Amino acid sequence: MSDEGGAVARVRVWDLPTRLFHWLLVVLIGVMWWSAEYHRMDIHLLVGPIVLGLLLFRLVWGVIGGSTARFANFIRGPRAAMSYLNGRAAHVLGHNPIGGWSVAIMLLLLCTQVGLGLFASDEDGFAAGPLSKYVTYGSARKLAHNHHLLFNVLLVFMALHVAAILFYALVKRNNLVGPMLHGRREAPAGAAGLVPASPARFLIAAAIAIGVTLLLTRWL
Q: Which of the residues 31, 140, 177, 209 has the least number of beta carbons within 10 Å of its own beta carbon?
């Protein structure tokens, strides 16, 4: 039953590419933290381009992907956010207006973090991003410092993200993790579910992500 006592149904909400992106990113961010913390820069430099490719894929998928993955579906203006906070918003299948902005900020921070890493360098120049050769040594070291500082900001933001998930689970009785695992959630009966993108669009997004990643990390 829904909160209003109406019937509910299980509908598809997240497509497979979106779910794979989410969980791969969770794992790889952990690997990136571990490799930097324990000075395994060989692993750090190996995994970095994979994270870059995932982010590029998500940016393209946010334009041509499944309906709930598209930025136009969940990035709303201040009025929509206030309506949601005041409890006046209609039922939202995917990201709510607050969660949508959280996703957008997270992607912006991660893209900035990876962008800094592309140009960063250690003191000896042995562990250097693939584009560090295009900036001076001093600039590469400054960018490496900013790369480190921004990760601390990311840690705070990720902690807030986890806290919000726990709040929804414990207070609002709304499990956000399950749908990101199996792709389905309960919604009012008759609610429109995910409109998936075609396999061709997935191939286009993957090709763009791989091509740009190779361009930035191997071919320039």
A: 177
Convert the pLDDT of each residue in 11-37 to its tens digit: 999 999 999 999 999 999 999 999 999
Closest CA to 129 of 24, 27, 44: 44
pLDDT digits (tens, 9 = 90+) for 69-79: 999 999 988 88
DSSP category for residue 89: S
H or E element in which residue 181 lies: helix 177-182
Residue 121 exposed, middle or buried by CB count within 10 Å (0-12, 13-18, 19+): buried
Sign, CA torsion 208/212/214/219: positive
3-state SS assignment for residue 215: helix
Residue 27's closest CA among 54, 3, 61?
A: 54
CA distance 62 to 189: 27
Report the chain's terminal Cα–Cα distance, integer Å.
56
Distance of CA 16 to the CA centre of its chain: 14
State mean pLDDT over 210-219.
97
Give the residue-averaged pLDDT of 177-205. 90
Of 53, 47, 9, the closest CA to residue 31 belongs to 47
In angstroms, the CA 1 to CA 163 distance is 27
Give residue 176's identity as a one-letter amino acid code: L
